[in-house]
């Protein structure tokens, strides 16, 4: 517990990040509207009212079952806390209107949370007959934002107070002097009864915040583990989380590619929107894992290309006859493409490109025969990257923009390799780029924060990062 308070103290001295993001983490800015929706959903569709207050049977009116906390057998029944007026009224709470939520972010601290509800009390009047009372209640709480021992964002209830509003007699008879007794008793009882509702709401929201610390699969490549890199920060409009993405291989070992020192100028967040910034490092790491695993290498045979892109010595002879020597026409070709270096990803204003440096071995072969090396090329593939968000991922699709090749070696005569670029481009588009897009279907995982869905977000490519913005 002391550790939690120490973290809270450190966090309270911090200020929201502005301008340059010096780290390589995934920056998330969650609008206060998203926090409000998470709390409201925990009251409407979550387990809070069912488990703490009883069974909710209507959205507008929370009717508490006889076995609920506040119903028969609850705290305010005969013999309970309400024993002071038991002989007079035997009151117990039977109805609770679904609370109306008000929320305000407190920079440098946390959240001011208000719940306005109406309480219905039923019992027997002192003169006999049914007695029904209704009371308006405002619950006000101050909630600090910090980090849990697990390293996830956490809302902690610091103070909870209650203001009892207008009390009205719905039915029955109640002498005026007893109104004061009822009011005093409610002021003593309701805070202990309704403040746990706030704690329960925060428990549900903290479970959602806890999903930030998650392990997301990367298909056959491994996984990405998200953790908080720094303490959470808060402004008057949003909560800011600097999330560290740790890439792990299939065996669970950490994949640690060099992190370039490329500050990101994060654009300002608009009101009523949430924002996540995906850094260049994550793109580089995904392609780095593909290269390390050999997924960027491919042997291209005639079976992998369509009939309109023939892969034979006949077609090669029409382009660079000097490269074939004395080989007869009609033989099949094998293109063995090897990638020895991690591809370079460029994120610039409104454009994403991937550059792959590859060694291309060109060989001829006959069925059941041994391939015969013809020549070797050094090639650079420049690919355009189309980015599209879904609810949980940032998807990447590549298309070949251009291919540049140079002759590295030849087993016959030297030749101008640029004459092969158009033909090789057709081969690589149909076989190699298609294979890359299949491997990239794993996408780049997005952190899970309060169930924010980025499927319909606005995507903006900036210098060294991609920014997703979604309306709250």
Automatic annotation (TrEMBL):
Position of the signal peptide: 1-19
Keywords from the named record: Disulfide bond, Glycoprotein, Secreted, Signal
UniProt cross-references to Pfam families, sorted A to Z: LBP_BPI_CETP, LBP_BPI_CETP_C
InterPro entries in the cross-refs: Bactericidal_perm-incr_a/b_dom, BPI_fold-BPI/LBP, Lipid-bd_serum_glycop_C, Lipid-bd_serum_glycop_N
Localization annotation: Secreted
Gene Ontology annotations for the cellular component aspect, listed alphabetically: extracellular region
A GO molecular-function descriptor: lipid binding
Ranges of residues in domain Lipid-binding serum glycoprotein N-terminal: 29-271
Domain of life where this protein originates: Eukaryota
Domain Lipid-binding serum glycoprotein C-terminal, residue spans: 270-470
Biological role: May have the capacity to recognize and bind specific classes of odorants. May act as a carrier molecule, transporting odorants across the mucus layer to access receptor sites. May serve as a primary defense mechanism by recognizing and removing potentially harmful odorants or pathogenic microorganisms from the mucosa or clearing excess odorant from mucus to enable new odorant stimuli to be received.
Sequence similarity: Belongs to the BPI/LBP/Plunc superfamily. BPI/LBP family.
Name listed for the protein in its UniProt record: BPI fold-containing family B member 3
Organism of this sequence: Castor canadensis
Organism placement in taxonomy: Eukaryota, Metazoa, Chordata, Craniata, Vertebrata
Protein's gene: Bpifb3
